[in-house]
Amino acid sequence: PPAPDFRLATVTHAQLGEPAFGIAPGDGEIWVTLRTLTDEGMDGLCSQAEALAHATAAQHGLGLTLTYHDIFLHCENAPQAVTALTTALDAEGIPHDARTLPMRASEDFGRFRTICPTAMFFLGAGETHPALHNPDYDFPDVLIEVGARVFMRVVRGRLAARDYI
Question: What does pTM read for this prediction?
Answer without folding.
Answer: 0.73
